[in-house]
Amino acid sequence: MMKITSLIIHILKPQEFSHEATRINYPPALIRLQTDEGVEGITMLEESIYADDLVIKFKTLKGWLKTTKEFIPLIGADPLEREKIEDSFWSQYFFQRSAPYTLCAIDECLWDIAGKYFNVPIYRLLGPAKEKLLAYASTQSYDDFKDYEKIIEYCLDNGFKAIKLHTMRNWKKDIELCKLAKDLVGDQAILMLDPYHAYTRYEALIVGKVLEKLEFYLYEDPIPTTDIDGLVYLRHKLDVPIYAGETIHDLYTYAELIQRGAVDGLKCIDVNVGGITGMLKVAHLAEIFGLMCEPHSWGHPWQQAAHLHVMLAIRNCQFFEMPVPIGILDYCNEDSIRLDKDGYVYCLSKPGLGIDPDWDEVEKRTIKKITVP
User: Fold this and answer.
1) Hey, where are the domains in the chain?
2) Do 159 and 339 contact (CB within 8 A), yes or no?
3) pLDDT for 52-99, tens place per residue?
4) Which of 25, 81, 219, 371 has the greatest count of CB atoms below 10 A from its CB?
5) Separation between Cα atoms, residue 213 and residue 195, nearest integer Å
6) CATH topology classification for 124-346
């Protein structure tokens, strides 16, 4: 039986972004889960603030919360017994806000180990539903319409057949932006809008009516996901499909969104639902009720890869989200997901997640290294 032996964490310098990137820039953490057979699971957490929490959980040898579940210490556990390990983890830490993030790191390392152990990409372990996905360009947010014109032209020039706009988050300006985008794109690409919870119900309804006329493909997170009544109201008033869910941290809220008829499709992020395993559960839940599930993948290369493996292994997904400009979030990685001339992406062919670190860059950018034990 293969056993988990140690954990290594590289806290890295914050990424050096150009003016193109509009995001909070935390120091990330490269996570390495090692085994006694030399198979190593690797992933990255965008925010290293969760690294200490992961170390504490890795060191824990005895569960303190009395449950009916057997406690499985990570050291000495069989990494192929993923569900057993994660059931034990969740029964101890389900109430902690950090639990989905640390579980995500463990889960993706375990999947990476499994893929490498059996010498296949993860999506092949899961059972492929497809071999490729149409990529959509996922823009930054800009302050000037000219910047949007430039990025839309860039997207078309680079072969994208779909574009999602992250907007100015002002409903009046966003309407003008959507009209501008439609004029520039015409029938060359599918358009989507994500104002990221910016609007009131009233504003969201007005914008949604414009999106219908402009034939936008979907309308993501127009209002806060916590306003489920508002999402139900908008869905009844609008024909443009409404998607939500990437800020949800538990399966029960997804179930309520579906039960209340609040969405046409779900979004999810690995760190919010506990990794690949959690995303699969969200996707299958959506499928049962005839809904699409389009996982968010606007993140670092390991996150993009984890999401793509899930997307290729589920039936109810049509697109892969790719941050633009292309490669803007690459960091300390040798392998990257890229679209082909027809606008499609394919999974990386290496076993596991399919991404190897650029170890020279990792060593150069490591500001702290933690090894357990």
Assistant:
1) 4-120+359-372, 124-346
2) yes
3) 999 999 999 988 888 878 899 999 999 999 999 999 999 999 999 999
4) 219
5) 18
6) TIM Barrel (3.20.20)
